[in-house]
Structures are given as structure tokens and as C-alpha cells.
Amino acid sequence: MGNNITISKEVFDYLNELKNNNNRDWFEAHKPEFKKHQSEVKAFLEAVKLNLNHHDEIEKMKLFRIYRDVRFSKDKTPYKNHFAGFFSRLGAHLRGGYYIHIKPGESFLAAGFWAPNKEDLFRIRKEFEMDADEFREVINQKKLKTVWGELQGDEVKTAPKGFDKEHPDIDLIRKKQFVFMHNLSDKEVLSPSFLDEVDESYKAIRPYFDLMSDILTTNLNGESILE
């Protein structure tokens, strides 16, 4: 796409150092480095958003804070040793979001629905109960499957309340999340073509988003529920 916005090896070096010195004294002493690398990642995320807006509509971009919420965690280290960003699609018309996770040895992209509200979750399950053929067709498309693999997400153990545990599509109905993940090597993240790779990966998930948006903006008769 003709630009040179990249993630530098210095970002990884800093995150590795932070992992080994995860305390307030070290962090405060290296605050200028943090600010520099955070700005670099933010510029990269802005470029990702710009690309996304050529083929999707992004309502907002979020760069997650480096500070950990340790209140309910056994791990009391104060800082995350990764950078992460999220792009939410536009309003009630377009659903779902894109995620990017930058961490040495554990970087990945993700896309889908992490925490659908109970109304959306019920609507999705009713769709599968009625007919899951189109959904299976979409998630098994060759390009999508090559990039993103299998649908992932937490699920209930047997069947949600009110659904038949013997239903032929119970594997889908049981799900509470509808997420795809694409793992990235350090070499990929640090490559000059990483920005393009992210965009191509996000393009490959689009048929899934289009179908889910259609499901979540209509009733079971296929009639729009948008105002």
C-alpha cells in the first residue's frame, strides 16, 4: 500500500525488558522509552484503521493501556508485556471487531465476537437452531479457513437453556463466543510487509462478518430490526 509503517525490533526488545523488570521503579525509569514505543504502535494501529476503512467501516480504534488490573488476579505484576489494539465496526449496522496483539513469541490477530450480549447470543443460537448451513458454508470458505482456521470460543457444557442437546448443530449452539485467531511469528510482525499482511488477513474474515451482521440486524424471518 505504499507506506513504510512497521513495528520495529526495538518494540520487541522493550517488551522483553519489561517482562524481566515488571516493577514500578524500572517502568518509571524507562518511561520515555515506553512513550516512544507506544507512539510507534499507535501509529501502526492508525495505519491499520486507515486500511480497514478502505473496505470496511470502523467506528473507533482503541489502544489498550499497559497497566494491568491486578485486583482479581493472582499475578500482581503491574504491567502487561504486550501492546494490543481493537477496531470496532460501525454501530448497530455492522457488528464485531478486529484485534491485534503484539508480544514477542506470542503475537496474533483475532476477529469476531468476544462477549455478545444475551440478546445477540440468543439470536445467533436461534439462527443455528433454524439452519446453520449458510454459516458453515461461510466459515469453511477456502481463503477464510487458510488464514483463520477453525471457529473458536468458550462454550456451555451441554446445551443452553431451551435448546435441544441432541440438535445436529449443537456444536455451534453451545458457543458463547464466536472468534477466529491467526497466530503470527516474530518474523512476520517485524517484516516490512506486516501492515499489508494484517489488512489481507482482515479482508479474509469479511464474509463471516457480513453474514453475522445480517443475522444480528434481522429477525428469524429475515426482516430488518434496525430503526
Automatic annotation (TrEMBL):
Record's InterPro entries? Answer: CHP02453, UCP028451
Q: Where is the signal peptide?
A: none
Q: Which residues lie in coiled coils?
A: none
Tell me which NCBIfam families the record gives: TIGR02453 family protein (TIGR02453)
Q: Name it.
A: DUF2461 domain-containing protein
* Source organism per UniProt: Flagellimonas yonaguniensis
Q: What is the lineage of its organism?
A: Bacteria, Pseudomonadati, Bacteroidota, Flavobacteriia, Flavobacteriales
